[in-house]
Amino acid sequence: MTADEGVVPDKVEFSLARYEPMTRLMDEGDLLFLKSQPGFRPELARKFTQERRRIFRLYLQELARDFHQLHAQARAMVASLPADHSNLVGMLMRQQLRFWYEISAIELSLSLNWVGSHSLNARGLIDALATMHMEINRATMATA
């Protein structure tokens, strides 16, 4: 059975601090520093940028997994609440839309990264996850 079939998933435990490196990983300053070093060659910049994109995508996969688990937990919790908490359904939908918008924007930026757009900001995505976590905690306290 899944959360959609009435089983409440286990509580998702994670740390938002785990995703903080994403906010700096694609910072333009690192590449500028690398370019200023003696012995710099353009192939070093290409390899550096490729590795940063690969690492960023790994973080992105983990963040998406955490969001899906939190969202499943929230859906199961909302399904068990009285009708007077129906406003939480709309909140869940907005959070999911915001998350997918942020993921799409980041994927587009990563795709354009190879043509020279190096800066990328993951703050909106991390904030969407933080908001989801906060709303779950708030709803849990309200129903306790």
Could you list some keywords that capture this structure?
144 residues, disordered N terminus, mainly alpha
Overall description:
- By secondary structure, the chain is mostly helical.
- It has one domain (22-143).
- It is 69% helix and 0% strand.
- The protein is built from 5 helices and no strands.
- It has helices spanning 21-25, 28-35, 42-79, 87-113, 123-143.
- 17% of the residues are buried.
| Helix/sheet category | mainly alpha
Q: List the uncertain runs.
A: 1-9
Characterize the overall form. Answer: elongated
How much strand content do the residues show?
under 5%
Average pLDDT across residues?
A: 78
SSE run: HHHHH
Termini, distance in Å? 25 Å
| Total number of strands | 0
DSSP helix fraction = 55-70%
Q: How many structural domains does the protein architecture include?
A: 1
Helix tally?
5
Describe the sheet with the most strands. Answer: none
Q: Calculate Rg over CA atoms.
A: 19 Å
